[in-house]
Design brief:
There is one protein chain. By secondary structure, this protein is an alpha/beta fold. The protein has 11 helices and 16 strands. Helix 2 crosses helix 11 and helix 3 packs across helix 4. The two termini are 26 Å apart.
C-alpha cells in the first residue's frame, strides 16, 4: 500500500492542476454521477472538537476514498493545525485499500482551489482588492490561490487576534505581489473589497451586509456548529451558490448554519440557493447547475458575472460536498517507487484529480 506523508503530498500537489480538476468533479456532483453521502461526525464537546468522516466515489475518475479530518479550533495553529486529516483510497474494482495520504495539506489546498474556481466563475474580472478574514490554516492558501485568477493589487487581512493578522500579512507580503496589510476590524477590511474570503471559526457573523460594497464576491469556508460567518441580510440579498444543495441544506454537521439559520427565521427559502455555476451550464434549479448571469430565486436575467447591483455570496463551504475535496489521484496509476521522490506531469495531474475529491470539513 502506498503511504505519502505531508511533505511528500505538498511536493506533489500542483495548485493549477487542482483548480482545473475541480470543475469536472463539480459537474459530476451536480449531475448525480457521484456517490457522496452526507458527512457524519463524532463530537468532542469539551474541546469544541469535531471528527467528521466523508466517503465518496467518483466513477469518471476511478476514485473511491474517504477522509477523516479533525477540527480542533483551540489548537494554536503553529505546532498543531486546527485541521488535521487522513485520506484513505481504495481500489474501486475490488475494494482493496490502496493508499494512505496525509490529508492536512490536501484539505487546505483543495478548499482554496475550490474558492478560486468560484471566483473565476463569479467574481468581477477587474477585481483588485482581496480581503482574507481569519488567520488559520485556510487563510494562506486562499490568499495565494485567488491571486492566480484575478489581478489583485491589495490584500487586507483581519482576524480575532491583531498580532496573528499582522504576522500573516507580513508572511504573505513576502510571497505575493501588491500591497498586503493587516487591519483592525472586519468592517474596515471589507470596506470597498472586491473579493472576500471568510476562513474563520466564527460564532457571530464576520460578514455583514452594511459592511459590503455592491458587487463583492464572497466565499465562505469556515465551520462552526455554534455559529456562522455571514449574516441574514447578506444571504437574503445575494446570489447564493453552493457545491451541493442537498448537503448544504441537511442538518448539522453536514449542513451550513449560514443558510439554515435564515431559512429557520423565514428570511429565505430553500429555493434561494443554487449550485455553483459550471462552464457551459444552461439551467437553474435544484437539479441543474446555475447559469452564470441569472439572478436570485426568481430567475430573472441579470447582467452577467460580477454585476454591481448587490453582493454575490458564494457559500461554498468545502464540507458541503465530499466529491469536491477527495484529493489527489487514483493510487492504482501511481508508480509507488517514483511517488516518494518525484512524479511525472501526468501523475501530478492525477494527484490533483484525487485531491479534487477529498471532502473538507
Amino acid at each position: 500500500m502506498l503511504v505519502l506523508g505531508r511533505s511528500q503530498v505538498e511536493a506533489l500537489l500542483d495548485m493549477d492542476s487542482l483548480i482545473d480538476a475541480l470543475a469536472p468533479a463539480m459537474a459530476d456532483l451536480s449531475a448525480g454521477r457521484a456517490s457522496v453521502p452526507d458527512r457524519v461526525a463524532a463530537l468532542v464537546p469539551e474541546r469544541d472538537g469535531l471528527l467528521p468522516a466523508m466517503p465518496g466515489f467518483l466513477p469518471s475518475a476511478g476514485v473511491l476514498m474517504t477522509k477523516l479530518v479533525s477540527l480542533f479550533p483551540h489548537n494554536d495553529g503553529a505546532r498543531l493545525p486546527t485541521h488535521q486529516a487522513l485520506i484513505m483510497a481504495f481500489d474501486p474494482d475490488t475494494g482493496e485499500p490502496a493508499a494512505l495520504l496525509d490529508g492536512t495539506a490536501i484539505t487546505a489546498a483543495r478548499t482554496g482551489a475550490c474558492s478560486v474556481l468560484s471566483a473565476r466563475l463569479l467574481a468581477r474580472e477587474d477585481a483588485t482588492v482581496l480581503v482574507v478574514l481569519g488567520t488559520g490554516v485556510q487563510a494562506r492558501p486562499h490568499a495565494r490561490a485567488i491571486c492566480r485568477v484575478r489581478p489583485i493589487r491589495q490584500i487586507r487581512v483581519a482576524g480575532r487576534d491583531p498580532a496573528k493578522a499582522a504576522a500573516l500579512a507580513e508572511e504573505l507580503s513576502a510571497v505575493l505581489e501588491g500591497e498586503v496589510r493587516s487591519v483592525s476590524s472586519y468592517a474596515e477590511a471589507l470596506d470597498g473589497a472586491d473579493i472576500a474570503a471568510a476562513t474563520t471559526h466564527a460564532v457571530e457573523p464576520v460578514i455583514r451586509r452594511s459592511w459590503l460594497t455592491p458587487g463583492v464576491h464572497i466565499t465562505s469556508v469556515g465551520c462552526n456548529s455554534a455559529g456562522r460567518e455571514i449574516d441574514d441580510a447578506t444571504v437574503t440579498e445575494a446570489l447564493v451558490c453552493v457545491e451541493s444543495r442537498r448537503t448544504v441544506l441537511a442538518p448539522l454537521p453536514a449542513g451550513s448554519n449560514d443558510l439554515l439559520m435564515p431559512i429557520r427565521a423565514g428570511r429565505i427559502t430553500t429555493g434561494r440557493t443554487h449550485r455553483r455555476p459550471q462552464a457551459g451550464a444552461h439551467h437553474t434549479g435544484p437539479d441543474h447547475p446555475l447559469q452564470v448571469g441569472r439572478r436570485g430565486s426568481a430567475g430573472r436575467r441579470g447582467h452577467g458575472p460580477g454585476r454591481r447591483l448587490r453582493p454575490r455570496a458564494v457559500n461554498r463551504r468545502g464540507h458541503h460536498a465530499a466529491v469536491m475535496s477527495l484529493p489527489a489521484r487514483n493510487p492504482r496509476r501511481l508508480n509507488r517507487q517514483r511517488a516518494v521522490h518525484q512524479l511525472s506531469t501526468s501523475a501530478r495531474t492525477r494527484l490533483s484529480t484525487f485531491a479534487a475529491l477529498a471532502r473538507f470539513s
